[in-house]
Amino acid sequence: MKKQLMNMEDSVATARTLNEALPYLQRYTGAIVVIKFGGNAMGDDAAMAEFAQDVVFMRQVGVNPVVVHGGGPQINALLKKLEIPTTFVRGKRVTDAATVEVVEMVLSGLVNKRIVQAINDQGGRAVGISGKDDDLMVCEPDDPELGFVGKPRDMRPQVLHDLFKAGIIPVVAPVGPGDNGETYNVNGDTAAGAIAGALKADRLLLLTDVPGVKNEAGEVVTQLTPEEVRDMTDRGVISGGMIPKTETALAALEQGVRAVVILDGRIPNACLLELFTDHGAGSIIRSTAPRVKPRNE
Questions:
Q1: Which residues fall within 8 angstroms of residue 5, CB to CB, at 6 or more apart?
Q2: pLDDT tens digits for 83-105?
Q3: What is the separation of C-alpha 71 from the centre of its chain, rounded to a whole number of angstroms?
Q4: Which residues are within 8 A (CB) of 167 and not within 5 positions of it... i.e. 6 or more apart?
Q5: pTM given for the model
Q6: DSSP structure class, residue 285
Q7: Is the Cβ–Cβ distance between 29 and 41 less than 8 Å?
Q8: Are 225 and 217 spatial neighbours (Cβ–Cβ below 8 Å)?
Q9: 3-state SS of 97-165?
Q10: Contact 215, 238 (CB under 8 A)
Q11: Residue 199's closest CA among 35, 52, 61, 29?
């Protein structure tokens, strides 16, 4: 009898959670949400399966998710195994012809297909592409000293809209073509921001390994405006690896993305917590104040 009562309590709690999520489920129907899934946030197979389940849930309730992934740790591991030396300029990896071949092999092959398989295993329909497919992300050199490191120049997102219409979840590797057929490696956050901007996405979720943007006291700031981000950066409060993420967020907002969230991808169900609960997760950056109290508006 005690076990039955506990099961009933769990069921009631689940029903209450679903009821509380209803306004958010309605609010995000038809919305485009771009998710940057970092190499460090991928974790083990269990973490990957949990992330995939969240993405499938999002698609099932009418959201159009796009997964843009990184793969830095996996690239580093294969470069080391192949004994391909790595050099750096001002802290950034120089990507020569040999290195960019490894980058494309890992990102478009190993990592991309692992994510696609995980989503399919959870009952979703995923297709893996890169910035090369249908010229989704045509690039130019970011810095000549860095070799084949690129930045998006021309975005052509029609292929993503076509996949949405077919009920398919796109999984995008951040490599793109240049004007002369060369391949460019693009920072995963930068690629996700450019794709979100081209789609005028409702949300860009940057999954990372920190809880969000922190203030001087080390506390996570749950809501920020671009002006506050710039001020915190000028004062050195935002520093180090958080700067590229906030720069990506600001650029995405300028391109028409409604809001950007920097959140800890290691938290179970991080994406669902952000989209479908009052509390949310991480730090949300947007140009305008919410229309109503909940942060997800």
A1: none
A2: 998 888 876 788 999 999 999 99
A3: 12
A4: 59, 125
A5: 0.89
A6: E
A7: no
A8: no
A9: HHHHHHHHHHHHHHHHHHHHHHHHHCCCCEEEEECCHHHCEEEEECCHHHECEEEEEEECCHHHHHHHH
A10: no
A11: 35
